[in-house]
Design a protein that fits this description.
The chain is α/β, with parallel strands linked by helices. The chain is built from 14 helices and 11 strands. The protein starts with a strand and ends in a 9-residue tail after the last helix.
Length: 331
């Protein structure tokens, strides 16, 4: 068996070598020639998995060490008999801590306490549900919108239009698909409260970046349209900007790698279905007050410092991301 692995995926070197021929490659060099004789890929969002890459290959299994799959042509893979596994939920607490840092900044911009603000959470999956839980604990009035969950479960969800019209802060946690492309667009922006702040740690295309940058609304983004080539005005106008690292925690990366290895092991019947990186402590999953979070978050995630780095060297987007020092999750 031959497996091609993105060399930026941590904790994985040496794990599969007893069972397979393993080739490590930078994402930009994973092409049809490299994958042609391979049986499996373990990749990140930088590898586009479609007919162009895979049509002449032997690949029958793809694990993406990411929560999203919009870089994978899922219908084509299904027709080609290729099994696809993602790491949904792997970095939920890492993203939660990005949101926490962004909320602290947002409350500073608005000069208000959580108890005085309405937070709209769009997408209540692995990340969004944690954001709802902690934001309610911190005192925000929370409005939650998740049409797929509402259709499946019913429950106390509200419409996106209500979120747009009533929220002081909106945080986005949806996948990117035909229903969420430019969910925040010029028309929606007209319905927002004048001071509304937009947070995005989902996918860049969920927001019309140019429209928001021209709107005067403050925004804090971790994901961008056209990344890594962010439009200069979009980056300049952001209140805070980070290089797609919201989920880059040690635990999130360990979870993603473990989920990828375990899925591959299950597919190919290898004895690694319980594997987890040695020496990585799992998330403590503890309660934390708003006051403690605000006073401690910079020790773990200095978002302003990271924003300054990206804004001063936007050409280093990929380098800042690939060489990011994974932070510890602490709640």
């Amino acid at each position: 068996m031959r497996v091609v692995i993105d060399s930026a995926i941590p904790f994985i070197k040496g794990v599969l070598e007893p069972y397979a021929e393993v080739i490590y490659s930078q994402a930009q060099h994973i092409d049809s020639d490299l994958v042609g004789e391979s049986d499996a890929l373990i990749i990140r969002t930088r590898t586009r998995c479609n007919a162009s890459l895979l049509a002449s290959s032997k690949v029958k299994f793809i694990a993406t060490a990411t929560i999203g799959t919009d870089h994978i042509d899922l219908p084509w893979c299904e027709k080609a008999g290729i099994t696809v596994s993602s790491a949904a939920g792997c970095n939920a607490r890492g993203v939660l801590q990005w949101v926490a840092a962004a909320l602290r900044e947002a409350t500073t911009i608005l000069r208000a306490k959580p108890q005085d603000l309405t937070l709209g959470v769009v997408g209540v999956g692995n990340v969004g549900s944690l954001v709802v839980e902690y934001a309610q604990r911190w005192g925000f009035k929370v409005l939650a919108c998740d049409p797929p969950r509402q259709e499946r479960e019913g429950g106390d969800f509200c419409s996106f239009d209500k979120i747009a019209s009533l929220s002081d802060i909106i945080t986005l946690h949806t996948p990117l698909d035909s229903t969420t492309k430019h969910l925040i667009n010029e028309s929606v922006i007209q319905s927002l409260m004048p001071h509304c702040i937009i947070l995005n740690a989902s996918r860049g295309g969920v927001v019309d970046n140019l429209a928001v940058s021209r709107s005067g609304h403050p925004y804090i983004f971790d994901v961008w349209e056209q990344e890594p080539n962010i439009l200069p005005d979009v980056l300049r106008c952001a209140a805070l900007a980070t290089p797609h690292i919201a989920g880059y925690s040690i635990q999130g990366k360990a979870n993603a790698t473990a989920m990828s290895v375990q899925a591959l092991a299950l597919h190919f019947k290898l004895p690694l279905t319980e594997w987890y990186p040695e020496g990585v402590a799992r998330s403590p999953k503890r309660d934390i007050s708003w006051e403690e979070m605000c006073s401690s978050i910079d020790n773990y995630f200095p978002i302003e410092e990271q924003s300054s780095q990206l804004k001063s060297t936007p050409e280093c987007f990929e380098s800042l991301r690939d060489n990011y020092h994974y932070r510890e999750e602490y709640f």
